[in-house]
Amino acid sequence: MLGGVGVRRKLKSRAKKIRSSIILGLLMLLAITTVLPATARQSQISQSISTPIEAGKASYFAGQLSEAAQLWQQAVQTYQERGDRLNLAIAQNYLSLVYQDLNQWEDARDAISKSLELLSAFPDDEATVAPVRAQSFNFQGSLYLATGQVESALDSWQQAEDTYQRVGDTAGAIGSQIDRAQALQTLGQYLRAKELLETVNASLASEPDSPLKADGLRSLGTTLGAIGDLERAQEKLEQSLAISQALEQTGQMRATLFSLGNTARDRNDYQAALTYYQEAIELSQTPLDRIELQLNLLSLLVSVEQWDAAIALLPQIDELIADLPPSRMSVNARVNFARSLMRIGIVANTSESIVANDREVAQVLADAVEIAQTLNDRRAESYALGTLGRLYEIRNNWSEAQQVTERALAIAQGISSSDLAYRWHWQLGRVLKAKGDRETAIVSYTESVKLLKTLRRDLVAIDTDLQFSFRDRVEPVYRQLVDLLLAPNASQDNLTDARVAIETLQLAELDNFFREDCLRTKAIEIDDIDPHAAVVYPIVLPDRIEVVLSLPGQALRHYSTPLPSSEVEETLQSFFESLHLAYSTQERLVLSEQIYSWLIRPAEADLEAANIETLVFVPEGFLRNLPMSALYDGERYLIEKYRVAISPGLQLLGARSLEQTQLSAFAGGLTEARQGFVALPAVQGEVAKLKEELAAEVFLNETFTRTNLQNKISNSSFDIVHLATHAQFSSSAEETFLLTWSDRVNVKEFGEVLQTREGQTTNPIELLVLSACQTAEGDDRATLGLAGLAVRSGARSTVASLWAVRDESTAQLMQELYQQLRQNPGIGRAEALRQAQLSLIAQRDFNHPFFWSPFILIGNWL
User: Fold this and answer.
1) Which fold does the domain 534-651 belong to in CATH?
2) C-alpha–C-alpha distance, residues 328 and 147, integer Å
3) For residues 130, 135, 141 and 144, what is the CA-based torsion angle, rounded to 10 degrees?
4) H or E stretch including 767?
5) What is the DSSP letter of 628?
6) Which residue, of 7, 369, 752, 798, is most buried by count of CB atoms within 10 Å of its CB?
7) What is the C-alpha separation between 264 and 830, in angstroms, rounded?
8) CB-side exposure of 244: number of CA atoms within 13 Å?
9) CA–CA dist 460, 36 (Å, integer)
10) Where are the chain's structural domains?
11) Which InterPro entries does the UniProt record give (predicted)?
């Protein structure tokens, strides 16, 4: 994302951050005047406070900042003359506040330092002093954040919170927690911010409505939006807006409308976003408010390719930016303005307009760099320099691009900003590749990937709106590295690195799917557990399809077929469609054999020589949607030659064969139509056979509830969990669910149910079967949800279907699967599924791949 969205989430705007802290701070300071000691002398002091201090407040809230500064300067002089150190410290706090709003950073820093120095003469535990000291820390935190010293801001706000808690000031402590959460967001640590804000809002839930409560809800809503939980984000933001409207808090209303606009944009509801932005603009009172909204509006117009409207907005933004005083906000505004200008320039109609645009963009970024240097804001400087490097890269000015990007990278590394360093390593890698320096480019890409791995636990730290642009900001890094590594005559080291990169991409996709680190159990390598299994890593690159083959105990093989990715993807899509019964057999077999010739035929001799019996695919992209068992060599399907399994990577949850003692099973399902899904009458017979084969406990229809599912799974140690109910997989975790009698249990909730069962860590579910599932229509990455569910469940193996199949054929396949497991001691999961599929192939009514091929095994095949 471009423009103001970047200001909002990645490099947080000074105005938005500081105003929240300032408003809360003013409220707390108002409370301070009521807790001063009630002696005659102190009553006289309180009376004097009501003159210059109160007058300054009135001017400040009226937007008359210079007048407020003068009045608070008078208050400082008054208390200096009286020798009243406590009230002098309060006046210095107010003075620092207004200096920050006037962008007079040195004066603000001097005022807050004097306040803290004055307070150091008082005992730490003195009740009348503690609130003043806490507010000094609060304002110091705001100052640090505004000038790019985020870690120092966190320290100051932690000291403020600790001080409030010592004197039992819950509201003050909560205000400091909200400020700390905002600083965590600025550092990209959204998950930590979310945890903190959840705690804050739980504390405020039973309290009366207040500006503090509205601020807590808005902060939580903004954070939830940043990590992709848009439904809850909308809910919290609407609650915040309702409170702000009831309390007539104009500034909070504007801020919340702004966040609602951003949330609507992230939902791709552009009309709603425009409406929210327009309402927020009507409430804007300062140039800082307006510039942030204008940048967001520009970015939105660019995203929806409304070029004329975007270009018409440029002079207004240019004028507003020119008047901004030096601050991190002004740096970020210029950088994000430049990013939108760059996108507009790319689609400009004439070379003259591109040249003019380049000059304008370069000047905007040069100004941003200069301001960042003046502020000594190294992070903002790196951000601006890196963006300038991107401009040079777009225009093929390779030498300038390399030089500037290296400067941005050095700064990012020097301040340990991994989220920026990953971007500049990636950018430098692209530039070096374009210059023909392949080996050094690989080094840069590898460093970028290493940083991405360290950032996996908090993926949104990597880039603005990362959860919505994973395919643009993360996935290409891995793919481009693999492209470089899989050159002709690639070394074993490069092949190994390519394999690792492919696997790491799979894990990163799952982390992005769940917004958290998914694989937390100790993993092992499948190379070590089956001497008759080969691992196939196919990947589609822009100009070819590549296959890396791992054979037990042997060097990696590498096969390449030159083809444009568009042709490959068209063939894959056509094959997927041909698996429907409406397509001709001849068309399907031609497409199937074509894909077989890309993925398997080059390896046939190696597979035969190595005595391979099982093929484990690690597919990516659209390849995940395809049933590999249905690939055709011209005479036989792949399943007729090999066992087939799918793995999300080289690592699995410990591998172990099924014990052939009595297997315990839980079966749940629906035969009746529920919640808009059709009836599944054959499920009755399906689970009856399972009960017959494995003495399963069965819960059907009204007894198959969320509560019963949770209670039985949590309090038992079933080897097999078989769910014969509708389930849908999607590229969104929220849209990946399974049906119970009256609920939809989403993938996260289902994973939590399975993970809480007795002995799950030491004795996980051996086999999870989902016999009536399907992928979301129109979602070409829906099978990511299937992989996510398989991993999240903690089961050693998962059998599920890629699309909805007639329940009669499914019932037969499941019956055969369990008969194989019961009657053939030592049979593996993949072999049992293979035999069940072969049993359908042998039947005239069900020999079409539509019936048997969608059932895939994910995970342990032994």
Assistant:
1) Nucleotidyltransferase; domain 5 (3.30.420)
2) 6
3) -110
4) strand 767-775
5) G
6) 7
7) 45
8) 22
9) 45
10) 16-149, 377-514, 534-651, 665-859
11) CHAT_dom (IPR024983), TPR-like_helical_dom_sf (IPR011990), TPR_rpt (IPR019734)
Look up tokens 């030498």; give the residue: 399
Cα 669 to Cα 811: distance, rounded to the nearest angstrom: 12
Q: Which amino acid is at 343?
A: R
Domains 16-149 and 377-514 share a fold: yes
| 533, containing H or E segment | strand 533-541
Q: Confirm if 631 and 595 have CB atoms less than 8 A apart.
A: yes
Q: How far apart are CA 540 and CA 563, in angstroms?
A: 9
Dist CA 196 CA 203 (whole Å)? 11
The residue type at 472: D
Burial per residue of 494-521, b for 16 or more beta-carbon CB atoms within 10 angstroms, e otherwise: bbbbbbbbbbbbbbbbbbbbbbbebbee
C-alpha neighbours within 13 Å on the C-beta side of residue 306: 14
The percent of residues above 70 in pLDDT, for the chain, comes to 86
Joined together, the tokens standing for residue 686 give 């399906």
Which position has the token pair 């707390």?
28
Which residues in 563-718 belong to E strands, given as ranges? 614-617, 643-646, 651-653, 665-669, 697-700
Nearest in space to 290 (alpha carbons), one of 263, 317, 323, 270 = 317
743: helix, coil or strand? Answer: coil
Of the candidates 555, 543, 552, 549, the residue with the CA atom closest to the CA atom of residue 604: 549
Q: Rounded distance, CA 177 to CA 173, Å? A: 6
Measured in residues, the chain has a length of 862
Burial class for 436, CB neighbours closer than 10 Å (0-12, 13-18, 19+): exposed
Amino acid at 26: L
CA distance 721 to 753: 12
* Most distant pair of Cα atoms in the chain: their distance: 103
Who's near 117: CB < 8 A, 6+ residues apart? none
Q: How far apart are CA 681 and CA 685, in angstroms?
A: 8
- pLDDT tens digit sequence for 271-284: 899 899 889 988 98
User: pLDDT value at position 692?
Assistant: 87
| pLDDT of 16 higher than 60 | no
**Distance in angstroms (rounded) separating the CA atoms of residues 566 and 542:** 8
- Domain 16-149 carries which CATH code? 1.25.40.10
The amino acid present at 696, given as its one-letter code, is: A
Query: Which of the listed CATH numbers 1.10.3080.10, 3.40.50.620, 1.25.40.10, 1.10.10.10 matches domain 377-514?
Result: 1.25.40.10
Q: In the prediction, which pLDDT does 734 show?
A: 72
The residues, any chain, with a CB within 8 Å of residue 675's CB and separated by 6 or more, are 739, 742, 744
- Non-local CB neighbours of 177 within 8 Å, separated by 6+ positions: 157, 161, 196, 197, 199, 200
Structure tokens given for 613: 């019996």
pLDDT at residue 504 in the model: 86
Say which amino acid occupies 775.
Answer: T
**Helix %, strand %, coil % for the chain, to 5?**
65, 10, 25
Please provide the CATH number assigned to the domain covering 665-859: 3.40.50.1460
The torsion angles phi and psi of 562, rounded to 5 degrees, stand at -70, 120
